[in-house]
Amino acid sequence: MEMTPELLAHYGLDREHDRLRTGRGRLELWRTQEVLRAALPGAPARVLDVGGGTGVHAEWLAADGYEVELIDLIPLHVERAARLAGITARQGDARHLPVPDESVDAVLLLGPLYHLSDRADRVRALAEAVRVVRPGGLVAAATINRSAAVHDMIHLELYLRPEMRKVALSALVDGDLRHAHEGFTAYMHDPDDVPAEFADAGLPGATRHGLEGAFWLYRDINGWLDDPERRALVLDAQRRLESVPSLLGVSGHMLTLARKAS
To answer: Residue 34: left if φ>0, alpha if ψ -120 to 50, beta else—which one?
Structure first.
């Protein structure tokens, strides 16, 4: 999660604040809430939100009664998150957390692994989460699936542009998404590689949850999400499909959970 010019330029657009609060990004938000609410210890418990951006998850966690500390690499994100009620925010790197050993009940990495292209760095970030979480505590990490760029660019019709098509197809090979739409760069996981990274960090037995399924690619998904009755049906459908192995890679994002040994 280096402070690269590309990373600063992308997040300097200040679009991260609304990404999950509007449009089809709401599906990722609501499904993340579902999975985490079923796994987190009861409030009040201390949650460390690493790479928490402008606080989109920290905000609802604090509203649920959790004690939330947010750490993010981007100064603009920290500044925005610090304005939210009930949240402590400071700058930091997922690989070197400024947090004491075994001092929190859960660690969320809902963004850092996107920006760590080296496997050793991803394992280091997960190992840091293991260090700071209490025995029996939860570690949860989000990853972008390897096929997401191809799916998303076709959905947005960016795939018609040869330079964008080249970027998406290259990411299918090695997971390295470079110079993509609006300057976004990322590492994109093969879903089957994530449990091994967890295990190497000291978190065996991880469980995987596809967040959006195929629904994020539906042309009329916003209409479904806008309507409470239809939204409930979509969420229920994906809840039933979230751990089907053959469907994990269809989701744009996957959420992987494990607990530190007691």
So the answer is: alpha
Q: Are 212 and 184 in contact (CB under 8 A)?
A: no
Euclidean distance between CA atoms 63 and 109, whole angstroms: 19
Outline where the chain has alpha helix (H): 5-12, 16-19, 25-39, 56-63, 75-81, 119-132, 148-155, 162-174, 194-200, 221-226, 228-241
| Cβ atoms within 10 Å, residue 240 | 10
Query: Which of these, 208, 195, 219, 203, lies nearest to 251 by C-alpha position?
Result: 208
Return the CA Rg of the chain.
17
* Each residue's pLDDT tens digit, 159-204: 999 999 999 999 999 999 986 666 678 899 999 999 999 999 999 9
Chain-centroid distance of CA 68 in Å reads 17
Q: CA–CA separation, 50 vs 199, rounded Å?
A: 19
> pTM for this one?
0.94
Q: Read out DSSP for 9-51?
A: HHHHT--HHHHTTSTTHHHHHHHHHHHHHHHSPPSS-EEEEET
State the DSSP H helix or E strand holding residue 175, giving kind and residue range, or none if neither.
none
Are 110 and 47 in contact, with CB atoms under 8 Å apart? no
What is d(CA 156, CA 129) in angstroms, rounded to the nearest whole number? 35
Measure the CA–CA gap between 74 and 82, rounded to whole angstroms. Answer: 13
Q: Residues 19-49, buried b or exposed e (16+ Cβ, 10 A)?
A: ebeeebbbbbbbbbebbbeebbeeeebbbbb
> Which residues share a beta bridge with 187?
176
